[in-house]
């Protein structure tokens, strides 16, 4: 009887210790830092370093590290991580999915490639490319050029060369933007189509629109109002009037689509 009593007590003690260890293993779970951004996204991981004046260095639960600027942080909280074993019926990738992060480069070299189309009575289309330096989200300065066909019925081709300023109003994936181009448009001759002389003029173009994406490569859509002066001399193919000269001052609203990177 004594042996049985001692055995029972020993078994009880071992069971109690096992239960306590199991409870401790369940209760002790790593805490995950949650960073809420102003654009509505949420990041889960560990705060490695937090400078209240500049921002924080953050390690995602996937292992990747990143810098989060101070002005993008809305609030910080803590929570338990996802369970190591996925819920029955829900794919594992769902638990590892990270929110899209605003990672648009607000400083440094930028480039744009865009095209426009206008819906005036004579029509017009063209493509542009620009490159410059972005000093901040609100101001980038660069130069650009392109090729424009400003009349689908006559040969009215122009190569603009301009300086530009552009910026973005909000630190978000979708934000309004502005652009302003000013320079000179070089008019092109085309003897095969009857344009025997051409002279360019001022090129001035303010633009407003919306940028989408917020990544290193984003796309944008906007409306611009273009002022372009030019003079073209054409021959009359019918031979009734010889030559005629058009002094043109385009005032056009155009739809522009492009990429910025």
Topology of helices and strands:
Blueprint: H1 2-27, E1 32-37, E2 42-51, E3 55-60, E4 65-69, E5 73-79, H2 92-95, E6 108-118, E7 124-136, E8 139-149, E9 157-168, E10 175-187, E11 195-199, E12 201-212, E13 218-235, E14 243-260
Antiparallel strand pairs: 1-2, 1-5, 2-3, 3-4, 6-7, 6-14, 7-8, 8-9, 9-10, 10-12, 11-13, 12-13, 13-14
Protein architecture, described:
A hairpin with a 5-residue loop joins strand 12 (201-212) and strand 13. Helices cover 11% and strands 56% of the residues. The chain has helices spanning 2-27, 92-95, and strands at residues 32-37, 42-51, 55-60, 65-69, 73-79, 108-118, 124-136, 139-149, 157-168, 175-187, 195-199, 201-212, 218-235, 243-260. By secondary structure, it is mainly beta. It folds into two domains: 27-95, SH3 type barrels (Roll); 108-260, Porin (Beta Barrel).
Total DSSP helices:
2
CATH topology of the largest domain: Porin
Proportion of helical residues:
10-25%
Strand order of the largest sheet: 6-7-8-9-10-12-13-14
Output the structural class.
Answer: mainly beta
Can you count the beta strands?
A: 14
What profile does the largest beta sheet have? 8 strands, antiparallel, barrel
The number of distinct structural domains comes to 2
- Could you give the distance between the termini? 84 Å
From N to C, what is the helix and strand string? Answer: HEEEEEHEEEEEEEEE
CATH architecture descriptor of the largest domain: Beta Barrel
Mean pLDDT: 82
State the name of the first-level CATH class of the largest domain: Mainly Beta
Portion of residues in beta strands equals over 45%
**Spans where pLDDT lies below 50 across 5 or more residues:** 24-28, 83-97
Overall 3D shape = rod-shaped
Radius of gyration: 32 Å
